[in-house]
Design a protein that fits this description.
The complex is a heterotrimer of chains A (about 475), B (about 500) and C (about 550). With about 475 residues, chain A is mostly helical. Chain A has a domain of about 200 residues. In chain A, about 75% of the residues lie in helices and about 5% in strands. Chain A has a two-stranded antiparallel ribbon. The longest helix of chain A is centred in the middle third of the chain and has 32 residues. With about 500 residues, chain B is mainly alpha-helical. Chain B has 22 helices and 2 strands. In chain B, a hairpin with an 8-residue loop joins strand 1 and strand 2. In chain B, helix 6 runs antiparallel to helix 7, helix 16 runs antiparallel to helix 18 and helix 19 runs parallel beside helix 21. Among the domains of chain C are: about 220 residues, no CATH class; about 40 residues. Chain C is mostly helical. Chain C has a 3-stranded antiparallel beta sheet with strand order 1-2-3, covered by helices on one side. The chains are: A mainly alpha (about 475), B mainly alpha (about 500), C mainly alpha (about 550). Chains in contact: A-B, A-C, B-C. Chains A and C meet through helix 6, helix 8, helix 17 and helix 18 of A and helix 6 and helix 7 of C.
Chain lengths: ~475, ~500, ~550
């Protein structure tokens, strides 16, 4: 069972993906049952494993591909953090997507790639070696493309193209870094950081830079972020998945792995690459927010907000201290909850009221109170209002920044808070205070659309209010840092 | 009967039967021969895997007097590759090369030529004698040129003509080298040549043979015959020509430089070969990007993909052969051969299906076909994944092994070429993918059966599985490898 | 797993009760009558403040581990806050129109209340910050409740400053928490004195709390927000909410910081300048708002002086909170007055409260002032004494404006409203007497001493004389907001829209052209001469490299 469980978890997404491709468009019931069933099953397996891992168990499954190429699935605490997030949000997004698409065309293709995307994310989370990580990283790149292009119109095809245009050179950089590193150290497992003694410091820095470029494209680090706002052309469930669980998170998760498991926090500090990375993350945080301020489309604004918010995670990793690490790790979950709420709501506004632009939000609060409340919670969490999720992350990041001797991080966080407020609060103001347009229409009589948003919004409130309890994401992040990452 | 003899004899017999019997029965006989050969190939694979190198001495005469055939791990792997591609092509050709589609003459000619090509390929893969290899090559070129010309269109004939002239020039150069070697050593057996006393003419002989083989392998800048020929042939033929044929001449280069005359492999010459390979990767990709027809894109992609193979020479050849990374680089190149064969065959067959559906392979006419033929589009995409070298495909395994070795050997620039090549492949394969994926379709496509669509999908899937289960083939190809370092990196 | 809650359950109940009541409007059937929960919401807090035994409560699983404990100064303010909110809640329950918007107000009213109580109970920085954010941000709904143009404009200023304040606070608290390696307020306060970044942290905290406490020049939101909010909203804003900033400074300002002098200076400036500026206002509530800035200036002066570990400031705030709350409520009472008798009674009551604030001997105000002056430097003592004159002046001006401005809105039960305000006023008058011995070390008869009475009386008389002049020749009318005059809502912060540029398209086009040109050399390679030449060249090159010469 020990080896089978990780494989089983991977299969709960992979198998439905493959089967779904071959289902005819009309068999809605079967497809939905398959996707929902496997999502529930996966979640159950993960809960079972969470309990075991909290007790200290480690699950491992290895598949040797070729000499030096070992596909290693290893469930440790940090992997579980990511995989639980993705499994939970996958289930919700599946419900949402089923309601969102109704009986539109090409659903088998969509759900096939959707599951494939989640399978890739799962694999990526469970990867125990650098090369397995790369493998799933690429699988993710490819399975996301059809999702972005799903609408098949000009805009989404352009978006999909620009996605690959950024992602593939990123992959090349990542592969380059991996091979450069592994040609000296041999295969890198995340359990024991490789001995970098054989590489001169400047080469180490170059490898680090290549790694960051590689994963930074997905994490949408400025200036590698251009694809993310463009990818807004995708349907709402895809955006939700992309921004909260799959792609940008994979990048951020990659940064964590690179800093802590490939190089090791100590080496990162010794090499002097942590501060430049933190600076880059800070630049991204600010630039993303400033650009968000300039957007008139809801989803674009949210997209630039993601650019900004995901770099909190990168910042946490780059500061290479225990508090910062906790902040980064916990934001991995928190940002996911909040951002997926926002995208769910943006999708509902679009789908139920035909509203895409910010000025269309006027007075929607009264007509769509549930959606608008969820949206408000998500937005306030993003701003970092206590006791919502975003506050907890920010608190730990701030502590970590001072601890790492980088108090300027506080200024970045403060500026980001203000910018976040500046681009989110006007939306809430419009929702709740401005009179609706005369020809306004729309309602929220679509429980399957609204319910996932309510759940995630409640989640982003709950993880903040119950942050100190052991079962919260913060508790788990503490556990991770205590067990393996404290210097 | 020995499995080794069977894989040579069965296609030949099938070819004879296909010519001799009336058309319908001929096709049936050809299919039967295909099935039998595939079975024999499996038999051979098992034999090699269990008992090591399989050799046979024809007529009981030991070399240098007699002719020796031997299937080592490498040869057997190549034979298996041909069997996979041939099997797929044969299945696809039943519809694509039916008389009502391509005309009676082409339909009649295809089957014997295909089987002849197969026999020639297998002969090259198991021959250990330079003259035998020459005969095999000639046979191969003959069949290949005929397959290009089979369509009978004017452009195809011109392309076939150009192909033939290149092939002949290559053969002549090769033959000249063989003659020089024979004059100096009195033997053409590779094993005996490896143990020879060096002669002053060896260098020239190797240069002539290599140049000739490079022309036949369509390595940049001798590649100009390939794209029109491969694009002009009917799709199943293109699949064979692009996937398999260049690999035969490449294998001979490999055997020459690694087995027959490794002592002549100076670093500068090795670098020249790799330089040509790098040129091929970049030039072929750029040309592929500039093409407007699907088959031309795929054909130029072959030019680019063949370039990777030459990068193995400075990494694992010459002095590098004894290094720990040599096995990785060498096996990586072989993975590239295998996965490219499968993927390229899948791609050409997909292109053929599209051509059959809309009657054109101009990119503009292919819009929206992913909707009507999703399986084919998926096959094309999977094959593209392999060609781009993305995990978990065989192409990735190839690239990973070669890049790691390149770094270990301190030749990171070749790794750069490989990385760049992957990006360029993405660039030139993206256009057809995007077009297929577009919403609107201009031309109402003719229906294509699912069975026909399944063939390229299986081939492309195999090229991916080659990466997922890359350990067994890796082990297999080490069987009988000269001074194989047991462990890779 | 540790217990969910250890210690007394009361402090927690005090905070949760209003939050629960605040959910009442969610139930549609209760929505219309929801305002009736408002006077009930602060009751547990009131009971706790009156009878509550000091004790610590821990809820280790909540947020980052909640710790609640009422510090002595905090207990005074907690009681005052509960009283003000109760009276204001009563007023609100009777005057709010029954609508969907009232439902929203009820929810956020309760949230603000919980936050306001929380800042006095919090024993760890995170709980404090959470409570502060709640009181600070949720109060925005009190400001904008009427949705008028000026309310929304004031709301913009309010929320901007509030969010900025939150941000500054968080940064300051983070530095403190990191340096202390603890979240306990006492530990944080201690470490702020020594931490390397402690100076910066204190500056951030002073600015953050200063915004809330109306520290000049960060007070600009105050005179804008108070006049536009509904009457009970203004009462809690001015009476209770601004005290959140005060308790923040009391809790976090480390002993012996240089910032004390700054606070004293700015406090003094505010005490006099705001009172005088208030004379340019016509709206009684705006006048009261300036009076609040002025009074808060005095309290900041006390905080800065560090007298009696802040007990004096808390004691002063106790009286001011209830008195100012009563005055604001009386504005509403005056509006409800329908007969001359009722109007007269209202004015008399307001006059009494105003005199107490000014510090007329024997009033509650005189007591807290006397306690405050104890231990101050002579100059500061004189300033506090003198401020009695300006306070009298501005409150007299307020009474004048209240008498002049007549916008009666019939249909309200004057007596009920007046009773609420009167009770609060009574509490303001009496509480300092009751609490005197606990809140100061001075002897019980101290306020009755002649010198003390004289010091309290002459400024009031002087102020009244000045007021007589001012009422005859009023100062020119100016819009509220002094430093920040709010006009129309300004154009939003939108830069001209730029498309998201994904691909440098020009570059892309150039590349395509280059590609097409690359086909020409390919064609050249296909020529037989080129192909043959290359083949020969290839043979030669290989031969050169392979043959030993």
């Amino acid at each position: 069972m020990t080896a089978a469980l990780p494989v089983l978890i991977l299969m709960t997404s992979l198998v439905p993906a493959i089967v779904t491709f071959f289902l005819p468009q009309e068999s809605h019931l079967l497809r939905n049952a398959l996707n929902l069933g496997s999502a529930v099953l996966k979640l159950a397996l993960i809960v079972a494993m969470l309990v075991a891992v909290a007790g200290g168990a480690i699950y491992e499954a290895a598949l040797p591909l070729a000499p030096g190429l070992v596909l290693l699935l290893r469930v440790d605490e940090i992997a579980l953090l990511f995989v639980s997030l993705s499994a939970t949000l996958w289930l919700l997004t599946t419900i949402y997507a089923i309601a969102y698409f109704g009986d539109k065309a090409e659903l088998s293709r969509f759900f096939g790639f959707f599951s494939l995307c989640v399978a890739a994310t799962t694999g990526l989370a469970l990867s125990g070696s650098l090369i397995s990580f790369f493998l799933f990283f690429e699988m993710l790149t490819l399975s996301t493309w059809p999702l972005v292009a799903h609408k098949q119109n000009r805009a989404s095809l352009d978006a999909a193209r620009s996605y690959l245009l950024f992602a593939l050179p990123g992959s090349a950089a990542l592969l380059w870094a991996i091979i450069w590193l592994e040609s000296t150290t041999g295969p890198v497992l995340f359990t024991d950081p490789p001995d970098l003694g054989g590489i001169d410091p400047w080469s180490q820095r170059a490898i680090f830079a290549l790694f960051i470029i590689g994963v930074g494209v997905k994490a949408a680090l400025v200036p590698l972020h251009g694809w993310l706002p463009a990818a807004m052309a995708a349907p709402a469930p895809v955006s939700a998945l992309l921004h909260a669980v799959a792609v940008v998170k994979a990048g951020a998760f990659g940064v964590i792995r690179v800093v802590y498991d490939v190089f090791g926090a100590g080496t990162v500090v010794d090499l002097g690459v942590g501060v430049p990375l933190a600076a880059l993350a800070s630049l991204t945080i600010l630039w993303g927010s400033i650009r968000a301020l300039q957007q008139d489309e809801i989803k674009k604004r949210l997209a630039f907000s993601t650019v900004s918010q995901v770099s909190y995670i990168v910042l946490g990793a780059a500061l290479a201290g225990p508090y910062a690490m906790i902040g980064g790790l916990v934001h991995l979950v928190h940002q996911g909850l909040m951002k997926i709420t926002l995208f769910f709501c943006a999708g509902i506004y679009d789908e139920r009221a035909g509203i895409k632009r910010i000025d269309g939000l006027n007075g929607l609060g009264a007509r769509m109170p549930w959606t608008s409340t969820c949206f408000s919670l998500g937005a306030m969490g993003m701003v970092g209002l206590p006791p919502l999720a975003g506050f907890v992350s920010k608190f730990y990041l701030g502590l970590g920044g001072i601890e790492a001797g980088a108090p300027w991080v506080l200024a970045v966080l403060a500026a980001s808070t203000l910018l976040n407020a500046a681009y989110f609060l006007p939306l809430l103001y419009r929702l709740w205070f401005l009179p609706p347009a005369e020809d306004a229409s729309g309602d929220e009589r679509a429980p399957a659309l609204v319910a996932p948003a309510v759940v995630t919004a409640a989640g982003s409130l709950g993880v903040g209010i119950l942050a100190a309890s052991a079962i919260s994401p913060l508790g788990w992040a503490n556990l991770i840092v205590l067990r393996g990452y404290a210097p | 009967m020995n499995a080794l003899v069977a894989v040579l004899a069965l296609p030949l017999l099938g070819a004879l039967a296909a010519v001799a019997l009336p058309p319908r029965a001929g096709v049936r006989a050809a299919l039967l021969a295909t099935a039998l050969t595939v079975a024999a190939t499996i038999w051979l694979l098992l034999a090699v895997a269990r008992r090591g190198v399989q050799g046979v001495i024809l007529g009981g005469w030991e070399p240098p007097l007699g002719i020796g055939l031997a299937a080592d791990g490498l040869g057997a792997a190549f034979i298996a590759m041909s069997a996979a591609v041939m099997g797929g092509v044969a299945l696809a050709a039943r519809q694509m090369m039916a008389p009502d589609v391509v005309g009676a003459r082409a339909a009649f000619g295809f089957w014997p030529l295909m089987l002849l090509l197969w026999a020639a390929l297998n002969a090259v893969f198991v021959s250990r004698d330079l003259f035998n290899l020459y005969v095999g090559l000639e046979l191969l070129s003959l069949a290949a040129v005929a397959l290009v010309a089979i369509g009978g269109k004017e452009a195809a004939l011109a392309a076939a003509m150009r192909y033939m002239i290149f092939a002949l020039a290559g053969s002549l150069l090769y033959l000249a080298g063989v003659v020089l070697a024979y004059a100096a050593h009195g033997t053409l057996d590779i094993g005996l040549l490896a143990a020879r006393d060096a002669a002053p003419s060896d260098g020239l002989a190797l240069a002539l043979m290599t140049a000739g083989l490079l022309a036949k392998t369509a390595i940049f800048p001798f590649h100009v015959w390939l794209p029109p020929a491969h694009a002009g042939a009917p799709a199943p033929a293109s699949a064979l020509l692009s996937g398999l044929v260049p690999k035969a001449s490449f294998l001979i280069i490999l055997r020459l430089w690694f087995e027959a005359m490794p002592d002549r492999a100076g670093f500068a010459a090795l670098m020249l070969l790799a330089g040509l390979g790098a040129g091929a990767v970049i030039w072929g990709s750029l040309q592929a990007m500039a093409q407007a027809r699907l088959k031309m894109i795929v054909a130029y992609s072959t030019v680019a993909q063949l370039g990777y193979l030459l990068l193995v020479f400075p990494i694992a050849g010459g002095d590098g052969a004894a290094q720990p990374w040599a096995a990785g680089a060498w096996t990586g190149a072989m993975f590239q051969v295998l996965s490219h064969a499968l993927a390229k065959a899948a791609m050409f067959l997909s292109a053929g299906l599209y051509l059959a559906a809309v009657g054109s392979d101009r990119l503009g006419d292919l819009r929206g076909l992913a909707r009507t033929m999703p399986m084919t589009a998926f096959a094309f995409a999977l094959a593209a994944v392999t060609l781009m070298g993305l995990p978990p495909s065989g192409g990735f395994t190839a690239k990973y092994l070669m890049m790691t070795a390149a770094f270990a050997a301190g030749q990171w620039y070749w790794a750069l070429v490989m990385a760049l090549g992957g990006l360029l492949a993405a660039a030139y394969l993206y256009r057809p993918m995007a077009v297929l994926f577009a919403r609107e379709s201009l031309i109402a496509p003719r229906p294509v059966t699912r069975a026909a669509q399944a063939v390229p999908l299986v081939l492309a899937g195999a090229s991916i599985l080659l990466g997922v289960f890359s350990a067994p083939p890796f082990e297999f190809m080490q069987i009988g490898r000269p001074d194989a370092a047991e462990e890779g990196l | 797993m540790s217990a969910l809650l250890t210690g007394s359950v009361w402090p927690f109940a005090v905070l949760v009760w209003p939050l629960l009541l605040g959910l009442a409007p969610v139930v549609p059937a209760w929505r219309v009558q929801a305002p009736w929960v408002l006077p009930l919401a602060p009751l547990p807090a009131l009971v706790f403040a009156l009878f509550g035994a000091p004790g610590a409560t821990e809820l280790p699983h909540l947020i980052l581990g909640v710790e609640l404990e009422a510090v002595p100064g905090g207990a005074l303010l907690l009681g005052m806050t509960a009283a003000v909110w109760t009276a204001a809640g009563w007023h609100a329950a009777r005057t709010l129109e029954r609508s969907w918007r009232a439902g929203i107000l009820v929810g956020f009213w309760c949230l603000t209340l919980a936050g306001n109580l929380g800042v006095f109970l919090a024993a760890d920085v995170v709980t404090f910050y959470v409570a502060f954010a709640a009181v600070s941000l949720a109060a925005w709904f009190l400001v904008v409740h009427d949705r008028t143009e000026s309310a929304l404009a004031a709301g913009r200023v309010y929320i901007t400053l509030a969010v900025a304040g939150e941000t500054l606070l968080l940064a300051g608290l983070l530095i403190g928490a990191q340096a202390a390696d603890s979240l306990q307020i006492a530990a944080v306060r201690e470490s702020l004195g020594q931490a390397p970044l402690g100076g910066l942290a204190v500056a951030l905290l002073v600015a953050g709390f200063g915004i809330k406490a109306g520290l000049v020049p960060l007070h600009v939101w105050l005179p804008l927000a108070h006049p536009v909010a509904p009457v009970p909203g203004s009462a809690v804003l001015s009476g209770a909410i601004v005290k959140a900033g005060l308790i923040g400074l009391l809790l976090f300002l480390p002993a012996g910081t240089d910032w004390g002098a700054v606070l004293m200076g700015l406090g003094l400036l505010g005490a006099f300048a705001a009172a005088l500026w208030g004379l340019t206002q016509r709206n009684p509530k705006a006048v009261l708002a300036y009076s609040t800035v002025s009074q808060m200036g005095l309290m900041l002066l006390l905080v800065g002086a560090g007298v009696g570990a802040g007990q004096a400031a808390a004691f002063y705030a106790l009286h001011h909170g209830m008195a100012k709350g009563a005055l604001f409520l009386l504005v509403g009472v005056a509006v409800a007055a329908s007969t001359p008798r009722e109007r007269r009674a209202t004015l008399v009551l307001a006059g009494a409260v105003a005199l107490s604030v000014a510090g007329l001997p024997l009033t509650g105000g005189a007591l807290v002032k006397a306690a405050a002056k104890d231990g101050l430097a002579p100059a500061a003592t004189f300033a506090v004494t003198l401020s009695g004159a300006t306070t009298t002046l501005i409150l007299a001006w307020f009474l004048h404006r209240l008498a002049v401005e007549r916008k009666p809105t019939p249909g309200q039960n004057w007596a009920a409203l007046a009773a609420g305000a009167a009770l609060l006023a009574l509490a303001a008058m009496l509480a300092p007497w009751v609490l005197w011995s606990g809140a100061t070390d001075l002897p019980a008869g101290y306020p009755l001493r002649a010198s003390v009475m004289f010091d309290a009386a002459w400024p009031v008389l002087a102020g009244l004389a000045l007021a007589a002049l001012v009422i005859r020749r009023p100062a020119p009318e100016l819009p509220p907001g002094d430093l920040l005059t709010v006009s129309r809502p300004r154009a939003r912060l939108h830069a001209p829209r730029r498309p998201v540029v994904v691909l440098p398209t020009a570059l892309g086009r150039k590349f395509v052209r280059l590609l097409i040109r690359a086909r020409t050399p390919e064609m050249a390679l296909r020529r037989w001469s080129a192909a043959g030449g290359l083949l020969v060249a290839g043979v030669l090159l290989l031969a050169i490299l392979l043959v030993d010469f």
